[in-house]
Amino acid sequence: MAKASSESDGCRRVLEFYSGIGGMRYSLMKAKVNAQVVEAFEINDTANDVYQHNFGHRPFQGNIQCLSAADLDRYGADVWLLSPPCQPYTRQGLQKDTGDARAFSFLQILELMPLLLHPPSMLFVENVVGFETSDTHAKLIEILEKTNFITQEFILSPLQFGIPYSRPRYFCLAKRKPSSFVNECLNSQLIQSPRPLFELFDTVANDDSSQEDRHELLQSCQPIAKFLELKNHINDIAVESAALMIGLSNNTSRTLGKGNDHEYDSLDQYYVHPSLVERWGSAMDVVYPDSKRCCCFTKSYYRYVKGTGSLLATVQPMKRDKTSLKEQRLRYFTPREVGGFSLFSRLSCILVSQCLGICPHLPRLQTYILFLRNLSFQSTLISSNGMHC
């Protein structure tokens, strides 16, 4: 009955696989797609606590490898959102690909697709750069072609959306025929370009891009100061809240900005110890409030300082070089700031923090990991490629 009602009002029925804290669902909301998430699937208990707190629904926490074609058919979903584990494909990992147990569930889902009586009409797949050259990717494309889908694939970074965060990711959009994309010239292609996303829809991009293109892209990004959650009292640098950036009202922003011990943490715990600066300073990526780029954060951020993500200089030096790092009083970006770089709203980030407050045993490192496992700038890609009814 629920399915018939959804179909009659033009509402998309959505399955959200590997839901994490709800990045895909939040993207649907931001893209203003008329959609209902009929089920989410996530194995991580803490992520499910956050998801339930934010959306009022707890994802299915069983092993999705046990799902049958009949199980999936019963949901009557016409949109699947999938963000499978990236560890089998990361450049820093063992790259075991299809031989990695963490890839098995996604491969099982693909194997079920030809067996479905009511297959989805749209798919959206997200993963790490490196997935596009994997055997798992080859299997994905093979199954999609076999089940009558057309695809458009992208390597995109938040930089292309004006966000000063270098984190390229792989995306695949698929529609089952007779549905089609508006920009058919991008069909069956993997598009990788430093140009802003909407320029890609005007012309077919290629990998031949000049250094000037990349420089112009960085110049189009907002400064890091836009994403800092607290005022830097050392240099009296006023920073605009992420709430304003994503369009919350001034009143809402002021309410969120008042803060208390439960909403905001003191920045003291985020400063890098001088001994670490002395030892690893030459290997650190240091950025400033007016910088328009920071490096990708890894799950070891805050635990290690070398190669895990950028550090923020809270004191402006006369000369920006490695010789003055101790005087620049470096700090880590906070979990909410990291979430902001992935375009989670400030309100969403606070809800995560409030929910995590229910679990006082949870290490701060886990807070970073929850954000880093989720993205939200997909909303632009979803909206631009016709997931609207």
TrEMBL record:
Keywords: Methyltransferase, S-adenosyl-L-methionine, Transferase. This is tRNA (Cytosine(38)-C(5))-methyltransferase 2 isoform X1. The gene is LOC113850210. GO terms for molecular function: methyltransferase activity. It holds the Pfam family DNA_methylase. InterPro entries: C5-MTase (IPR050750), C5_MeTfrase (IPR001525), SAM-dependent_MTases_sf (IPR029063). The active site is at C86. It comes from Abrus precatorius. The keyword S-adenosyl-L-methionine applies. One of its GO terms (cellular component) is nucleus. The keyword Protein transport does not apply.
